[in-house]
Amino acid sequence: MAALLRGSRSLLGRWHSHVVSVQVSRSMASKTQVGFIGLGNMGNPMAKNLIKHGYPVIASDVFPESCKELQELGAQIVDTPADVADKADRIITMLPSSPNVVDVYTGPNGILKKVKKGSLLIDSSTIDPAVSKEMFVAAEKMGAVFMDAPVSGGKSLRGKEFTAEEEVQRKELLSCMGANVVYCGQVGTGQAAKICNNMLLAIGMIGTAETMNLGIRLGLDPKLLAKILNMSSGRCWSSDTYNPVPGVMEGVPSANNYQGGFGTTLMAKDLGLAQNAATNTKTPVLLGSLSHQIYRMMCARGYANKDFSSIFQFLREEESQ
Q: Under a CB-based contact definition with an 8 Å cutoff, are residues 177 and 49 in contact?
């Protein structure tokens, strides 16, 4: 099964809509342990939300130092994904890439080594949809239920029909970590929705950065230009919520030397997934392909750890060379 979870603060930080699309009982929250694997920049806040909602959390991460903060909040820390599966029958994973997901689920110390029959496995990583399908098949062989649920604010699920109890558990967990849970269809379609969204996001951010840069060079005040764009047909999320020009907005990475937010490396990775999907489906993605090359170039030029909106700074430096 696949779904998209929107409204999570772990990805881009600023979301205006907070529409809860499901209403479920939380009576199980104080009774059932939840496993969480992957406590990086995105996984850590998600695990904290589970603890906040009353779930006992059993966590693991390849970097032990990443577990310290969660342990102080009461989480039980174990050494391997297999140890998590041995203690919890509802497990969430948030991992950097497709190889990481394959290893955590099917590796020597992976979840499937000790998974219990009937366990619910939710993968919130952004990976190749084909890998999600492979993990679904592998989990099904062990009697477990796998669903892909990438955060965009979004999540994904599917593979078979859920029982009533599984459906309650699924919605209960996802609604703790994001305001909007969107059902997408068969396993892998949540990943598809995520990479399509991020391809559009990259294209929109590059377009906004180019537009703002041109306007500034033509003598327009950047705040005035942003105001005009945001009351006109050019308005988009990158212009009105996450503007890439320093000084235009507060509380966004461009106001903090592009620190925090969604890293350029991650955007390049997601665009690579979109490019692979486009190649496999023989889909022309001209702007998506160009965006991929631009963000790869940024990674090579020292922008890898900056927010993806640093494309504006990159363009300004390019024009001065």
A: yes
* Dist. CA 79–CA 321, nearest whole Å: 50
Distance set, CA 45 to CA 16, 24, 49, 211, 309 (Å): 18, 21, 6, 34, 22
**And the tokens for 125?**
């990583």
So which residues are the catalytic ones?
194
DSSP 303: I
Count of CB atoms situated within 10 Å of the CB of 229 = 20
The answer to whether the beta carbons of residues 149 and 122 sit under 8 Å apart is: yes
Euclidean distance between CA atoms 54 and 268, whole angstroms: 36
Give the end-to-end CA distance of the chain in Å, rounded to a whole number.
49
Lowest mean pLDDT among 19-33, 158-172, 207-221: 19-33
d(CA 121, CA 13) in angstroms, rounded, equals: 25
Q: What one-character-per-residue DSSP string does 26-49 give?
A: -TTTTTS-EEEE--STTHHHHHHH
pLDDT in tens, 86-117: 999 999 999 999 999 999 999 999 999 999 99
Tokens of 276: 């692979």
Which residue, 163, 209, 211, 155, is CA-closest to 183?
A: 155
